């Protein structure tokens, strides 16, 4: 049996396994399970540039998700696939950079007036929650799209789950940019 057929027959299980591994990596980095000294260190300028690059990556990914939704609504399946695949690739780039930086230096501190700190904490909390919720939804919809011919997609849960995943993903990207602006522009 080939990989695509196996994924098609076990999409939910594969999505669950990939989600578990991905989220374990995220939490391991955030909790600094691996000592920073054990991680190869890039030059300081590279590590310092990661949040700025990630903000740009998130903004471009947000545009890709919005355009991807627009394209599927207009019936352009191929552009939808390319845009959503690009958004997922950008998300992966973001995540690798974010995890690398957090594993090395920990989370970025934010201090401001109590009201601004409260708003920041709320926005960050919603952003993180949506990002975590989106991971299994994204894996599931992308695996359905990858493992089924286009003609079969309407008979899968791709559309139903995608209608939930896409706006949550877009909001998470948008809030990530807001968090960046609060930390690096406002703060």
UniProtKB/TrEMBL annotation:
Domain of life where this protein originates: Archaea
Gene3D superfamilies: Cytochrome c oxidase, subunit III, four-helix bundle (1.20.120.80)
Keywords for the protein's UniProt record, in alphabetical order: Membrane, Transmembrane, Transmembrane helix
Pfam family, one: DUF420
Record keyword Transmembrane helix present: yes
Transmembrane segments: 52-70, 120-143, 164-186
InterPro entries: Cyt_c_oxidase_su3_a-hlx, DUF420
Protein name listed in UniProt: DUF420 domain-containing protein
Native organism: Halolamina litorea
């Amino acid at each position: 049996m080939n990989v695509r057929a196996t994924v098609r027959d076990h999409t939910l299980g594969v999505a669950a396994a990939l989600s578990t591994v991905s989220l374990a990596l995220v939490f391991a980095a955030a909790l600094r399970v691996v000592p920073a000294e054990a991680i190869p260190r890039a030059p300081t300028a590279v590590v310092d540039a990661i949040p700025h690059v990630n903000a740009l990556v998130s903004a471009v990914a947000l545009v890709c998700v919005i355009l991807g939704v627009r394209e599927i609504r207009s019936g352009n399946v191929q552009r939808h696939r390319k845009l959503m695949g690009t958004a997922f690739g950008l998300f992966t780039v973001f995540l690798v950079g974010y995890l690398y930086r957090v594993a090395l230096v920990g989370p970025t501190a934010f201090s401001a007036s109590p009201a601004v700190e409260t708003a920041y904490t709320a926005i960050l909390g919603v952003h993180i929650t949506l990002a975590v919720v989106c991971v299994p939804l994204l894996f599931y919809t992308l695996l359905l799209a990858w493992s089924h011919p286009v003609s079969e997609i309407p008979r899968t849960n791709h559309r139903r789950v995608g209608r939930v995943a896409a706006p949550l993903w877009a909001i998470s990207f948008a809030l990530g940019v807001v968090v960046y602006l609060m930390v690096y522009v406002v703060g």
